Amino acid sequence: MIFRYTLCVLIFAIATILGYSQNQIHGIVVTDRNNALENINVTNLISKKQTVTNEKGMFTIAAELNDAIKISSVQYEDYYIKVDQKTINNNNIVIKLIAKSYELQQVNIVKLDAYKMGIINYKPKQYTVAQRRQYSNSFAGGGLVVGLINAINGKSKMLKKIVAEEKRYDIIIYLKTVFPDDYVVQNFKIPLEYSNGFRYYASYNQEVVELCKQKKVMDLQFLLTKLAVDYLQTIKE
Fold first, then answer.
1. Which class for 205: exposed (0-12), middle (13-18), buried (19 or more C-beta within 10 A)?
2. How far is 171 from 208, CA to CA, in rounded Å?
3. What's the CATH fold of domain 23-96?
4. What residue spans define the domains of the chain?
5. DSSP summary character for residue 76
6. Whole-number Å distance between alpha carbons of 194 and 205
7. What GO molecular function terms would the record report (predicted)?
């Protein structure tokens, strides 16, 4: 009886010690303009525990002294916190994230195309060429006679389709730049061999197109998460 009582007291004492060793770190993640950021990943790199910020940008995560916490998102620079006594004592730390810049990738975007990405097995015409051809065969560029002839034989319709497809390729390339293969596999759960196919599938969604044009990466991320569920169902059928 005494042994059992002693054992229970010992187990309770150990559980109490372990409970107190885990501190709850509270924080809020905002932009450089102090706008709250939702669904930002917060990871304790030592314990591997993870959480995400809520709609107010707030989070709570367990951590011990000298742990390292990573705050990350696809559209913001990573931020790291070393848990010291000051961090533990601070009831609510404020973290400001800096948006990533995609200007360099956007400058190089014109050098890529769907043929090089392996989406299609033929090389499409250059975007600017298609635009010039569409213009030269239209009423404005080719005059009334040329415009009428091409409207009758369907050439104008074909050229418009080419321009539309090349704009779609621009959307696909932007998606590949912002959401590379490893991100698509890890976050959208799309198999690697279907990653380009998923981008092509998403490029037909008008809301995706508009978000790409406006470069609203966070909204785009949420929408693609929903579309990924439908796409996975499609490839299973």
1. middle
2. 9
3. Immunoglobulin-like (2.60.40)
4. 23-96, 104-236
5. E
6. 17
7. carboxypeptidase activity
